[in-house]
Amino acid sequence: MTTNPSRIRKAIFPIGGTGTRFLPLTLATPKEMIPVVDTPLLHFCVLEAIEAGCEECIFVISNEYNQQTIIENYFSNNGVLERRLRAAGKSEQAEKWRAQLPTPGAVHFVEQKHPLGLGNAIWLSREIIGDESFAVLLPDELLFAKPGCLSSLVSAYQKQKDGFLLAMQQVDQKECHRYGILDIGGGKVGSEPVELHGVIEKPAPENAPSNLAIIGRYILPADVFELLQPSEKVEEGKEDTPLTDALETLIKSNASTCALLFNGERYDCGSKEGFLAATLARSKVMS
Ligand code: G1P
User: Fold this and answer.
1) 3-state DSSP assignment of residue 100
2) What are the DSSP E strand ranges found in the chain?
């Protein structure tokens, strides 16, 4: 059997952050398990990955506050809820619940012992990923669309076949300092991916090459691991080998490096305002 090299089977969820913005709650609950009404942030992201065809989930954790146990308990399909639903004659709901969880045995935990940032979290997953292209999803970014953001990226990547593809959205110019900002040269933003000319991490608004921000969904090639190798000496509190630097190196090489506009609803749940907006939007959908 030959495998399709552009099929995206594995998804990394970098969740090693400390969640200081949500203290004191995060003393007891990992930030990504905070629910938006009835579903933890991380579960929305896992659902997006499952919908896009990903079969394996890799959670990169810091394991502060028992993060692994809490997440493992949640996603391990121990059948309790399913049995309860079946006993209540709700077998359709039981099936639905099972489809919302990763397949048993396809969940991995990788510990990021030092807070060395996103690039390092991805690099730590290299053994599980191997030599295939893979997805990265940042659960802080809650994205609602039909099809989901990652599904759209995966479809576009089937045509692109190699290099990287990421999702972007226009943000307020004054918000550019919070995101990786893309340089698309003279390219036109539309329904097709646009070729990238550069990327700058969190620029001051006056230095931003556009207002197109990276919104936490990436398809990356395995070549990126070489570029994310940890440096020998890392300054205390500094991010090691930032992902954006590796993306910039790939852009300057001959690789296809593109971004696709995301047209759905986006909530930046790294901030309390974004989190509240997501909660309101979700409760309206449910009522
Ligand atoms: C990360 C990335 C940044 C991206 C953002 C999306 O930043 O480094 O390029 O735009 O996620 O939310 P963070 O929010 O982790 O500081």
Assistant:
1) coil
2) 10-15, 35-36, 39-40, 56-61, 107-111, 134-137, 141-144, 164-170, 180-183, 194-195, 198-201, 212-220, 257-261, 265-268
- Mean pLDDT computed over 170-197: 95
Question: How far does the centroid of ligand 1 lie from the alpha carbon of residue 215, in Å?
Answer: 7
Nearest residue by C-alpha to atom 10 in ligand 1: 179
The pair of three-digit structure tokens given for residue 257, joined into one six-digit string:
């490096």
Q: Which residues of 138-264 form beta strands (DSSP E)?
A: 141-144, 164-170, 180-183, 194-195, 198-201, 212-220, 257-261
Residue 142: strand pairing partners = 267
Residue 3 pLDDT > 60: no
- Which bin fits 75, alpha (ψ -120 to 50), beta or left (φ > 0)? alpha
Q: What is the DSSP letter of 6?
A: T
- Give residue-wise pLDDT tens across range 203-239: 999 999 999 999 999 999 999 999 999 887 766 667 7
In this structure, the strands spanning 257-261 and 141-144 are unpaired
Q: The pTM is what? A: 0.94
Q: Return the amino acid letter for 88.
A: A
Question: Is residue 224 a contact partner of residue 242, using CB atoms and an 8 Å limit?
Answer: no
Closest protein CA for atom 9 of ligand 1: 180
